[in-house]
Amino acid sequence: MTHSLWTIILAAGQGSRLAPATGGTRKQFLHHEGHPLYWRSVLTMSAVPALAGVVLVFPAQELDLRSAELETLKNIADPGVRILAVCGGDRRQDSVRLGLAALPRDCTRVLVHDSARPFFTPALVQALLAGLTDEDCGVIPVIPVTDTIKQVENNLVLSTLARETLRAVQTPQLFPVDLLRRVHEQALAEDWTVTDDASMFERAGLTIRTVPGETANLKITTPEDLRVLATHPPLPVPCTGFGYDVHAYGGNRPMVLGGMPIAGAPFVKAHSDGDVLLHALCDAILGCLGLGDIGEHFPDSDERFENISSAILLSEVMDKARALGLCITHVDLTVIAQTPRLAPHKAAIRGNVARLLELCDQQVNVKATTEEHLGFTGRKEGIKAVAVVTGARTRP
What we know:
By secondary structure, this protein is of the alpha/beta class. The protein has two domains: 5-142 and 168-231, Alpha-Beta Complex (Spore Coat Polysaccharide Biosynthesis Protein SpsA, Chain A), CATH 3.90.550; 237-393, CATH 3.30.1330.50. It is built from 13 helices and 18 strands. The longest helix has 14 residues, at 63-76. The chain is elongated. 4-CDP-2-C-methyl-D-erythritol 2-phosphate binds at residues 245-247, 271-272, 293-295, 298-302, 369-372, 376, 379.
């Protein structure tokens, strides 16, 4: 099934606890890095390749003002996705319901996010997408509770809760749109009051899956939290890298693709192990970093790289990527060869590449095709591969 993904970003709250420290400005409209705080969530969401659009929910009395502000922001840095603005309601759940009403008919999955949590990453969204199957009712990010938690009434301790089973819940939260609409209708009909959408699913008897959240995904709530805005690292900058590599057949290296040996395949000519797919992937990652190509870092004139595993080269490239703050969100790989037939190997290659990059399998795509007997690959003289890497960088 093809899914269309949208996000609802809630920016209609009052922010009463923070108002005395901000001169009355709602926290979602505080300026951070030259933009209103809610805009950071928009830009982070837009770095997710699967995202089709954003619904921003604003206070009703500020809708015209914020809609004009949005146009200015888009002219400065267009996120490249559709953005709609709608009025919010009195409660958080009312704002979500109004946001749901604005989603297009083809939307099948929706991320609900609080704009007061501006420091989540595209990788967290990818983890949510990877965690939601067609059988799940929803998936939410959580982090372990480290403090001792006590139940208190009238300033008296009633009990100590087992923190091993407790988790602190974050947003964004991911749901199938039809199910989320259904539980909101039930909540409205039965007059429920909840603090997040997952709570509605619980009351409706539906199961919610969890994935690890991010400790930096803090909610700006109190005056003390304002210090985070001054010290938090800049917003990750989206980037894309393209890689391409070719190897001829007839050499003395057994074929390896994505770190997986391909039994019965032609041998290749190469200085290293000749893994054309990992070489293209390395080039694509280096492209995201602006660091040239694999030949500059691992020249075939250097004896240290004679018959070296390309997985080791990829590991060194990933060390550079981490040092420069690159977060890879998606990898798309294509092998072009007339022979061997690669369909039986694609799943194993995908899983191994995901492991090497520390990604979920769903963040890696592997394709194989021929060139209809045209060119050197069509004449079975060699093999080539291309790679596209999508990610975001936190440091120049």
